[in-house]
Amino acid sequence: MIDLNKYRIIELSVELCPTIYRLDGVREDPFPSTDMDWNETVVYSGGAKRLVLRQIKYPDMDFNELIDMEAHLGTHAETGKHLDYDRPSITDFPVDTWIGEAVICDFSDKTPINGERYELTPKDFGKVKKRDIVLIRSSLSYGDAPIMTEAAAKCLIDKMVKLIGGLEPFNGVVGTDELRNIHNMFHENDIVLVQGMINLNQITKERVFFIGLPMRIKGLDASTVRAVVLEEKD
Fold first, then answer.
1. FRET partner for 66 with CA separation of 20 to 30 A, picked from 22, 159, 198, 203?
2. Are 88 and 190 in contact (CB under 8 A)?
3. Bridge partners, 99 (sequence order)
C-alpha cells in the first residue's frame, strides 16, 4: 500500500463558485455585479463561464442540486473532440491517462529577449521521458511567458507524453494560426491538455505523482478535473 504520510499532497485545482438558486427563491451570486448566470470563476480561463446550482427537494424531503455548467470550466482537461467532434471524448481515454509520474518543466527563467518572447525548443524538454505527464510552470506573466513552438510540440509528441498541463500549458499568441496548429498537433495525437492549474509554484521536486481525474460522462470534449500531485517528503 502507498504510505501517504511520506508525501505532500498539493492541490492544483481552483475552487469553483456557482450562482445558487435556493429553495426559498433567493439567488446567491458570487459575482453580484452581473445579473447573468455567467460567472468569471477563473479570470484566465478565456472569459465568463456558466456554473449554476439549483437547489431541489425530493418528496421524502432530502435535498439535492441540479447543476448547469460548461465543460471547459476552471481547472479542466480537454480532448481532441474540442476541435473535431469525431475525435475521442473524455471517456474514450484509458484511466491511466489521468494518473502517473509527472515531470515539472519550469521556464520562469525564459524571459523575453529584445522584447520578443522566448520560443521553446526540443532542448527545453530534454528531461521529459517517454509516456511522462508534463507540467509546465512559469512565474512570468502570460504576455512574457515563453511560447510553445511546433518543434517543441513535435518533441513531446515523439516522446508519447500522456498529458500536458499548467496554467496555460501551450502558451502562445492567442488567435494566431501557430497557436491553433500546436493545439491541434497535440489533439491529433491524443495528448490531453489540462488548463487552469494553480499552486504549481508549491512543487519543489522535479518529479511528482500526478492525479487529475475528469468526470466520467460519455461524449464530453472536456471536463473539470480535481488535480493534485503527490510529492515525496525529504
1. 198
2. yes
3. 211
- Tens of pLDDT along the chain (234 residues) come to 889 999 999 999 998 888 899 999 998 887 665 555 444 444 434 456 788 899 999 888 899 999 999 999 889 999 999 888 899 999 999 999 999 999 999 999 999 999 998 999 999 999 999 999 999 999 988 888 888 999 999 999 999 999 999 987 665 544 567 777 888 899 999 999 999 999 999 999 999 999 999 999 999 999 999 999 999 999
Contact 201, 182 (CB under 8 A): no
- DSSP code string of 3-65: -GGGEEEEE-SPPP--EEE-TTS-EE-SSTT-SSSEE-SSTTSSS-EEEEEEEEE-TTS-EEE
Residue 64 contacts by C-beta under 8 Å, 6 or more apart in sequence? 55, 56, 57, 58
pTM for the full model? 0.89
